Please model this.
Amino acid sequence: MVTEKSSSASQGVDLLKHPILPIARIVQFLYLALPSTSVDSVLDELTEPVETVSAVYPAPGEILRPYLPILKNFEMLKKAEKVPWIILNEQYEQEDVFEAISLMVGQQIITRELETINSQLCGPCRCDLCCVGPSNEMQQDFFEIPLAADEINLFDLPCIDTAESRNLSALTEPPFSPDNIPFYKNPQALYHWKTGWSIILPKETACPHLDRTSGGCVIYDQRPVTCRRPQIFPYLLEPLPDRNRDENGTVVPAYVARKKILAIWDCPHVQEFKQEIAEYAEMCELEPVFKKNKG
Ligand code: SF4
Ligand code: SF4
Model:
């Protein structure tokens, strides 16, 4: 019998077996090799099936079409435009333009693709690990869910936004202690840190939107971006805010290349689909890293 869970998970696994990045890289090479002036026209040409070592893509142009806004970054290669990021290799030397664009496109494609895959692997399951604070047996005092500023209104919780909180992060030692009590010992709240907003889940608490009976999220369609992307993460690039550059009032963000896919071992789906995740990373020419996060 095909259950909702097995059907959703098998769709996620099928996507893992047909990653977008290998065919996006073909587009990068074709765009450079052909006289095409737009990536759009390269996609128009890709009507025949493409076969890689381990996957067949029946209509690559069509499969890639939703990613066109990201793929258009390749056009900087012919327009001699300056790339709007600083991309360094692991020796902290500047990457060349081809590699810099390739990495940024890869990071953006995999971010988008994994959002779908993670939802399909996790969506119908009854696991709530991402939505609860640490249990009393765990070493951690709290879990943090980063939020965008426009996501804090999703939560009817007190907002702690002081000059002191905005100068610290949740991981600063000694911890932020309003009224001389470490923040994570206070009731659940939203905090504005120097790294941005987050909801703090203290020990033995749960996100207010978790339905403990069903294990589901009651604001599933509106849930924050962070909640859409666990527990397989793109890690081609790591932000390096200390190396950001100010160019005439515009911040040029800096990154260091990591070329990895990070999967959190605590997640039951990561354990169940370890082999498929490792193969997905290898097909994308990235190193799979499995890491335990909680405990
Ligand atoms: S908003 Fe929803 S998905 Fe996010 S932590 Fe809360 S219950 Fe979980
Ligand atoms: S740990 Fe994995 S299966 Fe559990 S809620 Fe998070 S993403 Fe879903």
Notes: The longest helix spans residues 97-122. The longest strand covers residues 254-264. The chain has a mean pLDDT of 93.
